[in-house]
Design brief:
single chain; alpha/beta; Rossmann fold; 2 domains; 8-stranded mixed beta sheet; 8 helices
């Protein structure tokens, strides 16, 4: 791995004055007497934080944008819970130029004031919910996160996720809102405009934004959607100039009732519409090709290198490496 540069910067955002905060008595330093403080004034809102990794000899002509899912940040692409090399490091070792972002109202992008900017309260997800929502185990089998052996026994048979380290994974979960799609997508569009021609690898909620961006933004060369939780309402009237799409789905979905079965069905119907328009679409259900045990957190599962190999092979077929 030979990097030419690592840049960290913010994209988007606009100046806005807020005047509805109540004054408060606050001590701003240890052992300092409280003083009257006002939070009214100018704020910059709507930005996302970006880290840009530039190899000395990039594998492709365009960078790969990594967009995370709901309740997560760009940290999900780094080392997984329990240790080992994550996809970010692996991609850099393969000389892929990578741009990782924290979406609007997540991580280093900062949270806008509530309720001054976002009227609804943020959503917090306990591990009890994550256990079932991310397909680690059945809804009523969550045993708590204290006993690693019990977590493994109660999880889905053959689970690839390092469930013994569920509490470590819980450190990544952050508050989120369910009403910020418009602001998030606007910031992602600003990122695409700054980046120019690019590829997008997106997970869950990020997958929805990537699919939408492929319809509205020129210069997107490829879209890899890992279990997108949503799809655009309608595809375009023509498939011209729309990037090739790769959809990847894990295990514990087929034959089971629940939100992921319905989300997969909606994504399948959307993919079929794209295909009819002439868009090149590749759809992979991992169990159908003999790869089992994958959770919703594909980039953290123990077979993550195998999964990244599949993605890289697909990209190589569509974007001839230059090095």
């Amino acid at each position: 791995m030979h990097l030419k540069a690592i840049h960290g910067y913010f994209i988007g955002g606009e100046l806005r004055r807020l005047e509805t905060f109540p004054d408060r008595l606050i001590s701003l330093a240890t052992n300092e007497a409280p003083a009257l403080s006002s939070a009214n004034g100018d704020y910059v809102l709507g930005q996302i934080y970006v880290q840009h990794y530039q190899p000395c000899a990039p594998r492709y002509e365009s960078p790969l944008l990594l967009w995370h899912g709901g309740g997560l940040t760009g940290a999900c692409w780094e080392n997984p819970p329990g240790g080992g090399q994550g996809w970010l490091s692996d991609l850099l070792c393969r000389n892929v130029e990578v741009i990782v972002s924290d979406a609007y109202e997540r991580g280093r992008s900062g949270q806008p004031p509530y309720p001054q900017v976002l009227a609804d309260p943020p959503l917090f997800r306990p591990l009890d919910d994550v256990w079932h929502s991310f397909r680690f185990g059945n809804a009523h089998d969550y045993p708590g996160a204290h006993d690693a052996a019990l977590l493994r026994r109660k999880s889905h048979s053959g689970l690839q996720f390092p469930i013994e380290h569920l509490a470590e994974f819980g450190k990544q979960m952050v508050a989120r809102w369910s009403t910020t799609d418009e602001q998030t997508f606007k910031a992602y569009q600003c990122l695409i405009e700054k980046t120019g021609p690019c590829m997008i690898l997106a997970h869950s909620q990020g997958g929805y934004f990537a699919l939408k961006a492929a319809l509205q933004s020129r210069g997107i060369n490829a879209v890899i959607a890992l279990e997108p939780s949503g799809v655009p309402d309608e595809p375009p009237s023509t498939g011209r100039d729309i990037a090739s799409h790769l959809f990847i789905w894990g295990d514990y979905i087929a034959g089971r009732d629940g939100p992921w079965a319905r989300r997969r069905e909606r994504a399948w119907n959307y993919a079929q519409k794209l295909t009819l328009l002439g868009v090149e679409v590749c759809w992979i259900d991992l169990p159908d090709i003999g790869i089992s045990g994958n959770s919703h957190m594909l980039m953290m599962d123990s077979n993550r290198t195998l999964l990244l190999n599949l993605i890289m092979e697909w990209i190589d077929q569509h974007k001839q490496p230059i090095h």
